[in-house]
Amino acid sequence: MEARHVIILGSGPAGYTAAIYTARAGLKPLVFAGPQRGGQLMWTTEVENFPGFPEGVMGPELMDRMRKQAERFGAEIVDTQVASVNLSSHPFVVSAGEDAYESQALIIATGASARWLGVLGEEQYKGKGVSACATCDGFFFRGKDVVIVGGGDAALEEATFLTKFATHVTILVRGEALRASKPLQERARGNEKITFLYYTQVEEVLGDGVKVTGVKIKNSQTQEISELSVGGLFVSIGHQPNTGMFEGQLELTKGFIVRKPDTSLTSVPGVFVAGDVADWNYQQAITAAGLGCMAAMDCEEWLASQE
Ligand code: NDP
């Protein structure tokens, strides 16, 4: 079994930052990039709030730059998917493909995945008009009316993006107010192709067996049920942490990995955590990167203490 000082799981801003720091510390990290190399920013268009890019930067470019920076200092990054980890004994064992690796320390930066509504028709029409990624699929909705569910930053950003293709975008908000930041709200409100429906939830995705033809919606104030004729439904209601592999091995809360306050330490010594997988509050690229730095520094200190 190949032996390592540190293995990093995940390749978003948290994983790559942890890789840069541990590589510079001479720990020769092995990074498993995970199912989505580069993480969620690979599906984003322009990132306007990452410091150091006054003109903005495209999400994939930002991630490519982070990867190159980590590799420059000697991080080994592989695109193989990790099947399991065993944290019950030390060194920890990470299994991926045909291979297994022993590692003294582990940094978990597996991020989060899109949440779905769980309504009738959603599963059936995924990829046939139902999507959780406007950036990936928006192009296919040229000339169509679409709806997007959610009232957060992501929903408003994606709605604005969708107006490049769709004839009209209706944003379905389940409550009385949006959660998104003021600038994004103003931008969406100023877009004549966007309208908002409040107190509205999707009851069912309607289709002709091949593609989406509409949605059945319910107004939670009046209980009125109606149908909207649309060619697409985008779901943008937040993300859930990717922690399936760690259930029963690490302390979790609401699915997120618990980290000791002001540190990246988890319930298992030698296992550190960074990014959205442990962050139910901020979920920003820059906070993920900051947590990646913390995890690397905590990891380096812990490894030194073991010698
Ligand atoms: P959020 O958790 O911020 O918002 C989720 C939205 O979905 C809320 O409006 C919520 O409604 C709604 N919602 C949740 N569940 C359901 C459901 N079952 N049915 C209908 N609506 C539902 O998630 P985001 O993905 O928007 O953002 C995540 C984080 O990423 C945030 O911190 C955000 O600031 C950040 N982000 C920042 C961006 C930027 O700065 N440019 C861009 C994108 C994301 P309710 O409010 O009623 O709970």
From TrEMBL:
Transmembrane segments: none
UniProt KW Oxidoreductase keyword: yes
Domain FAD/NAD(P)-binding, first and last residues per copy: 5-289
Reaction catalysed by this enzyme: [thioredoxin]-dithiol + NADP(+) = [thioredoxin]-disulfide + NADPH + H(+)
GO biological process terms held by the UniProt record: removal of superoxide radicals
Alphabetic keyword roster: Disulfide bond, FAD, Flavoprotein, NADP, Oxidoreductase, Redox-active center
Molecular function GO labels: thioredoxin-disulfide reductase (NADPH) activity
Cofactor list: FAD
Keyword Mitochondrion: no
Enzyme Commission number, as recorded: 1.8.1.9
Cofactor descriptive note: Binds 1 FAD per subunit.
GO CC, any one term: cytoplasm
Pfam family membership, one: Pyr_redox_2
Protein family membership: Belongs to the class-II pyridine nucleotide-disulfide oxidoreductase family.
The protein's assembly and partners: Homodimer.
Protein name from the UniProt record: Thioredoxin reductase
Organism encoding this protein: Candidatus Uhrbacteria bacterium GW2011_GWF2_46_218
